[in-house]
């Protein structure tokens, strides 16, 4: 189970992950990489140096994407949809960079993205013993607090007060292993090139998560160093491969898969199926309806809502695939068989039983507890909470003021010394705010608050008592000054006193809501999350004892490597070829969205090689968060950029089926072709060595 | 399983329905009423005359509601929400009858509702032997055709060509019994009185399906006879009871519960849980988002979308309750145990097995077949189809032209001699059309069509190829002439030739869509519906053999009687009183929707008895379709009008739990009080004998 909406919800057989992973399955950590197994299967053994290079040339974009250095001077390649927030923030009513694309013909034309951070993994340290020691013998509230404190301390010690370093403790195998991941943090990231939305997302929402596919979903950014110069990445970048990947070729991908739940218990999976996913789906569907109608009201509304609508539609379709995987009765039945087998092992060994008790039952109880409070938690705290940016600012400011007074180890993650630079960047970024859109989103949330909590709930009565949701949302947005970054800076700098003295209505409102939100968050931390962690950790130890640790942990939005081969598949009995071509994109275009090609493509048609491969699929095991991941051949050269999985791969949260699950990527051949013959980006092409 | 969205989807234990129903459970037919059991439990035995009076004073409103005669001169009482379509159709930008209410101070002020029909059940005939004979030995297509033909013939024979008579064959026990229900049909129904929306639906969507509740959800209509005079109902009406109902009092309700699935197989219930309900919920949620935003665009948009938004929110909340009931693992497990027991009985008896085979497996196969085609069926034919009124007209006209050429017994139900008068009334009614709203609904459907079928589907390519959904919807709505009832009348009268020669773009478009729609509908009729019917009928016969017929059938939107007592219940450990008062409504009002009382109520506050009971609950077993049902005491007098069930009752599609399931109704005492002291409706109060 994952709480809320932003964290996601989906896992095959318990055994798939823990027994020796089959075939190309697995999202492997850099420090436990199955190099020997790959040698055995494919005749190529990645050396430690090869892996170090892979790690150092790869990047995490903490909003949920991956990326890679692709030149000696800090050039970064990722997906268009991973740069979409930046493109939208840099747009104006006069110039819509999302739709029109962007190209900095000169280096000085590169524009800073307001709130992009990039992380480069520079080290991993196992801290499991320290964590075990800190929580030994503790239960309930006490366990949760001790765990939080030791994690905060480990992160702080690792970073040593250097804001250019970010350290995250990563909980692997659901608490079986704790590692500290040390990243170099880059916050000066600038926009270099993006194609037009019409080709980056050709086929639109109907084609999302489908294959065959015809998208140039790429963007180039550049990391600058502390002196304002392009970062020197001489030693740590992927060169473009001189030839495109071939059918059957072994390829690797290095990225940050978000979350999987392949190790979840049956109680958690059933909760996902029965509650989390359906409730998320209806929440997202309503939001989609709102945003579609808002966008239909005019071009400017369509422009300002674009990135949000994409995010909602993308999340909706991903969750629908996950839900459909989970209602397939075979899936949960498989987990149940594996779980029963393990439970029987524990039951048969009094010593093991004495040590661990019945962690499955304990987790089921935690799930039941959550079930009773989930609606309130999700609507006031996270998951189905307000989508309004202004409200998010207000809440962050209110919390920062309180949290920053506490000792570091007592704070929520986003306010610790380790987490705060990213929070502050977000708070102070000069990003445009659409008052119209803010009103719609805030109103929708107020309506939902009343719907979920009921008109007689004290918060609803206090907040909405004698006002309509419509009036209240309008008042708040019209009267707050938080759209101004200077005001946010002032409030942040002023700390608790500034917040206390603020008459900003949105600050007052956020304080009101936060009283409830913090109470419910604390309840969930103690009675749900701590219980799940403690007991999932116990299950992991039982599993290690039974089956060894020669397997990969669930995805945790931290760097992982997967391997696979370039390969088609079968769907409804007919073969699906492993690639599509640029010529086919032309053939499929109708001239109307979502099948309209941009003018640049139409103009260049005769210059484009129609047989050039555009998108490819491979058996690499990926999920959301892998967007923008580099695809690498055995020479360590870039052959593609992942931008999607096929619809079959959406069940990947719960397991992996090599027969049909595929990663979908843009082939570097198409990037070369487009840059040279469609966009004429000489400076960029030269830098890429094309 | 029910197909699509409009038909609903929810059932407790198989045994609950078939074993002697427990306690007050049951939606009983008039011809198999458990009078002796009631005598035994409550000491009152409804006589045949008492039941005849109940039947003749009750009405069905075929759009999904119930009603009753309440005066000797054709006065009808139902819910405000059952008259909402009429109120909206009679409104204009200048005068919003939904919000403002309506009162005809003189008889000549009563206004005809454009498309309301009322049905009065005058006779029931068992035709099971004729049906069995007609389908004996048939399978597949052949079975489906034979069944349709014999049903059409029986209906036609019953009505004898008299349009004032409507005959429906009602399939009871899922095909165990076939009865012909003969109704008197009234199509001249006029509006007499409705209160304001703010009190009819006080608490709005958040309070819908909740109790305690504070709604005056009533409306008065009047049936006129063929001569244009009020219908003489001297012998067939319910007098208002002189005193309100008391706690513990035995009460009856006579109405038309829509659908229940208490006899469905496990395969069907799982399909509902995994597919039908979640897919309906997300469809409705998106529609809600669209309509909420459309309504926020201005007062006139809010007005024209009001009835549709209510319908969508109401359906959404009902389905959410059904879904939550179904994911409760106990529910389906209970059905499974009962089903396994019955299957074991069949397996143990070679003769029975020889006769029936394995009907459960056959139904599971039909469900699997439907699963594969459901998306297409529902998006092009029904369920998640277009919500546009103009498109509905176009499709009805196209189909009517083709179908009316066929022999009566070959037509779809809505085009048979028996069904057509209602269809025609709907087609020709002079109801206002909002072009803005039509465009939104049509666009949403086109977007969904592409999303579900994919951009490469031939229909999508033909229909949407080089246009955006937005442009296409606008063009169709701007260019069609079907908003004009005279044009619809002309096309209907002109038959197949008029349709062939029509250049109306919406007619052309409907023809295009209908090619696919009819093909898929035929496939589903043959491979799903016919299989389910045949095998559900077989299961019913097994059940009759095992347990007798002393039980009620699933609801089929035909007249039923349920009995129960006025009684509170417990919720989360605290008692819920059986009534609310008018004074409490005043106390709860905040002045802002959805807790705003209308000006009439605010003005009259000092004149209103605060202790007057407003809403009451009783243990009567009801579901959707029972809205507007009269609640009757043992003297046959009216004590209330049902308008809702509590949230616990939403699982009623699958079973009945007397501990918490409650019917919610307006007490007649509150109606008297409001008419006398708030609305001053002297003429109406006098007619009611108050």
Kindly report how far apart the N and C termini of chain A lie: 46 Å
Number of strands of chain A: 19
Strand content of chain A: 5-15%
Q: What general outline of chain A do the C-alpha atoms trace?
A: globular
**Structural class, judged by helices and strands of chain A?**
alpha+beta
Please mark out the parts of chain A with pLDDT under 50 across 5 or more consecutive residues, or reply none.
Answer: 1-21
> Major beta sheet of chain A, specifics?
7 strands, antiparallel
Indicate the percent of residues in helices of chain A.
Answer: 40-55%
GO biological process, one term (chains A, B): proteolysis
Family (chains A, B): Belongs to the peptidase S46 family.
InterPro entries (chains A, B): Pep_S46, Peptidase_S1_PA, Peptidase_S1_PA_chymotrypsin
Signal peptide (chains A, B): 1-23
Task: Summarize, please.
Two copies of one chain form a homodimer. Helix content of chain A is 48%, strand content 14%.
Please give a structural write-up:
- The structure is a homodimer of 690-residue chains.
- Chain A has 690 residues and is α+β, with helices and mostly antiparallel strands.
- Among the domains of chain A are: 1-13 and 263-384; 388-523, no CATH class.
- Chain A is 48% helix and 14% strand.
- Chain A has 25 helices and 19 strands.
- In chain A, strands 1, 2, 3, 4, 5, 9 and 10 form a seven-stranded antiparallel sheet that branches.
- In chain A, strand 2 and strand 3 (75-78) form a beta hairpin.
- In chain A, helix 14 packs antiparallel against helix 21 (505-547) and helix 15 (389-403) packs across helix 20.
- The first copy, chain A, starts with 13 loop residues before the first helix and ends with a helix.
- At the A-B interface, helix 9, helix 10, helix 11 and helix 17 of A face helix 9, helix 10, helix 11 and helix 17 of B.
